[in-house]
Amino acid sequence: MSVTNNIFWYDGKIIHSQTLELDINDPGLLYGATVFTTLRVYENSLDSNLTNWQAHCDRLLFSIQAFGWQQPDWNHVRQGAQILLAHFPVLRITLFPDGREWITGRFLPEDLTEKQNNGILCAIASSEFYRSLPAHKTGNYLSAWLARTSLDAQEAILVDAQGNWLETSTGNLWGWCDRSWWTPPIKAGILPGILRSQLVNWLQNHQQPAQEGIWSVELVQRFEAIAYTNSVVEIIPIHTVYQPTGSLQYNPYHPSFQQIRELFVA
Question: Rounded to two decimals, what is the model's pTM?
């Protein structure tokens, strides 16, 4: 495929460039005043159940309504996504307060299969790196970005002031113990991930309810296996977590992972 990254959609138009021109007083530039969602296109279709297009649009709508922002031209949003999916399997849809839409594409990580099969190394981030407005995916992702880039690890785990584990810098946490999956509750201050909701519903439909509970220091030591999920990487096991008091080890090959992977079999 002779496609480069020099293509994106902005404000109703397809643009062939590596740069986007914004007014120097644009609040999206000055304050990160945008909301976004990132989706993986399955079966080359926005209408695939796994792509979950409507859920991603609903997430954006929830945030712009909560903030009192102008709605975008949703036909333009879908049109731009439809054009870009021919070039990229992953789309990032960003909305500005005045209704402008900006859609970019990217490829799946080259080492994704390796991470899915063998797990990754994580580290506990400082509690100061919590996400602002955690119920929304805003353009101000500085704390999560700092947490991930300031640690010698492949992913960072964000914690609250009490040291309870919340989420990773890019996804929701899952743990297996007592013959059940566990995930931190939304009320703890985490992003209500779209794949998280899909998994909760899917597990319940397969008579394997996912339990919500605070991931305290005691609970994380009980887990046999842990992982994180998001709409792009699906599920990635975590084999080691570095923390100030010493590292924790988990089984990245635990048979419980196979149950969740069945969700992604089209």
Answer: 0.94
